[in-house]
Design brief:
- With 328 residues, this protein is an alpha/beta fold.
- The chain has a single domain (3-92, 171-327), classed as Rossmann fold.
- It has ten helices and 14 strands.
- A hairpin with a 5-residue loop joins strand 12 (305-306) and strand 13.
- Helix 3 crosses helix 4 (128-138), helix 3 runs parallel beside helix 5 (155-167) and helix 5 packs parallel to helix 6 (185-202).
Length: 328
């Protein structure tokens, strides 16, 4: 399967503070991350708040500084492009922002919102009214919604408008930042089913950014777990859910609500707080919270290593024999 997006050894660095006396501090929000998204695939970035997943996504579309590494879309380099050059690629890569209502301008009608990308990119030859009706039909909204304003929409309707807006330029890749945030559980399922249906119909690739593991279980083909700006585990979603190999993945899964009321996963409690990326722990950066920590973990940083099954894990002692137990 052809790789649509390739990210290799990406580091996103910010300079903080500095002045007449104080020296600026460097913060690596994303540190040496590599992955690829295939055509027609849904790939999920999973992690707690502050893990770096949103910063990574912003770097892909040129909204965060790339310090090192490469980003390629269909073989074309994206990192370091100016605004004009990047604008061409933004027609093929669309962003869905987290807040379904707040990301929509309150002064614009739905017609204006879903067709605004056409105006921004100078697309001619498409009637705005007809295009708005086409896009609304694509996401399951009546044509009459074109005259509404964002405050007249429910959260689920606003999210569908956001999806329609993202599809206006017929992109190949959609970056969906917390696509179910702020929505009721029943509405979350509707939105995920919509994305899956559109993917099948249009041949889209989707990058999901989320902390909600039930979203990943529902829609993602592959997933990567982020901690302090690094990947600690990556692989097929089904395999990761069935047998997490990194202690952090195990902790996230054990804390996730179990959809089967007759099943129970033993809960793994994590000690302490997430360290600041300004003061990264030595050795394995997860060792300050890991319940399985050993002396080697405190002194030596592990390397993200891919196994024969395609799973990649950054752990000196992956959990081959410490799988979560289920019982009725």
């Amino acid at each position: 399967m052809t790789a649509l997006l390739e990210v290799e050894h990406l580091t996103v660095r910010f300079r903080l503070g500095g002045g007449v006396v104080a020296k600026p501090v460097r913060l690596d929000a994303v540190a040496d991350v590599s992955f690829a998204i295939r055509e027609g695939e849904t790939f999920a970035l999973v992690g707690e708040s502050g893990s770096g997943k949103t910063t990574l996504t912003r770097a892909i579309i040129g909204l965060a500084p790339v310090h090192a590494g490469a980003i390629r879309f269909r073989g074309s380099a994206l990192a370091g492009l100016g605004d004009r050059a990047m604008k061409r690629h933004r027609r093929r890569i669309a962003m869905m922002f987290q807040d379904p209502v707040g990301s929509l301008s309150p002064r614009m009608t739905v017609r204006g919102l879903v067709t605004e990308p056409l105006r921004i990119h100078g697309v001619r030859g498409r009637g705005r009214g007809a295009e708005a009706r086409r896009l609304l039909d694509l996401v399951g909204l009546p044509a009459a919604f074109a005259e509404r304003y964002p405050h007249q929409l429910s959260g689920g309707q606003a999210r569908r408008v956001g999806v329609a807006r993202a599809l206006a330029l017929e992109p190949e890749l959609i970056l969906a930042d917390e696509p179910t945030a702020g929505l009721d559980v029943s509405v979350q399922g509707d939105v995920l089913n919509l994305l899956a249906a559109l993917q099948d119909r249009l041949g889209l690739s989707i990058l999901i950014i989320t902390h909600n593991l039930n979203v990943v279980r529902h829609i993602a083909d592959r997933m990567a777990i982020m901690y302090l700006g690094r990947f600690v585990e990556m692989g097929a979603s089904e395999a990761v859910f069935a047998h997490p190999r990194h202690p952090y993945t195990l902790a996230l899964l054990s804390a996730n609500p179990e959809p089967d009321p007759d099943a129970r996963r033993d809960r793994l409690e994590l000690a302490g707080e997430i360290p600041s990326p300004l003061g990264r722990p030595p050795g394995c950066e997860f060792h300050t919270r890991c319940p399985f920590v050993r002396d080697r973990c405190r002194a030596e940083a592990p390397v993200l290593t891919k196994g024969a099954d395609g799973r990649a894990v950054s752990c000196h002692y992956p959990l081959d024999g410490l799988m979560p137990r289920r019982s009725a």
